[in-house]
Amino acid sequence: MTETIGFILNDTARLYRRAFNARVKDSGITALQWRLITYLKRHEGIRQGPLADLIEVEPITLSRMVDRLTEAELVERRADPADRRAWRLYLTPRAGTLLVGIRLEIAALNDEALEGLSAAERDQLGHLVERVRANLSRRVGHKEPEAA
Prior knowledge:
By secondary structure, the protein is mainly alpha-helical. It is built from six helices and two strands; from the N terminus they run ααααββαα. The protein is globular and about 50 Å long. The termini are far apart.
C-alpha cells in the first residue's frame, strides 16, 4: 500500500461528502449540517458548547450553523432551566421528516460506494473501520456528552 490508511480514509470521506452534498443539494442541507442534525438526534437537549466539541467545530461556527437550521425550522433553541445563559438544542418535527428522506439518499449512496463488495466484505469493512475508529477514540478524557 503506497498511501497511508489516514490518507485513504480522509480522501474517501472527502469524496463521500462531495457525493452526499450532490445528492441532497435540493434539501438545502450540507454534510456538516447533516452531522449536526445526526448528533443532535442522538443527544437531543444538548447544549451548544458540548455539541460544538462533539462535531469538532468552533462554538461560533456551531452557533451560525444552528442559526441557519433554526431559520429553516429544523432546530430549535430552548432555554436551559439550570442556566439561563445557556441554550439546549432540539430537532423540530420538520427535521424528522427531512431525516427520513435523506436517509433514503444515504442508503443509495452507501450502495453505490460499496458496489462490487459482497455482503461479507461489506460487513468486514464496517467492522475494520469501526476498530480503527475505536482505536483513535481511546484518548484520555474522551467521552460522549450527556443530553440533559
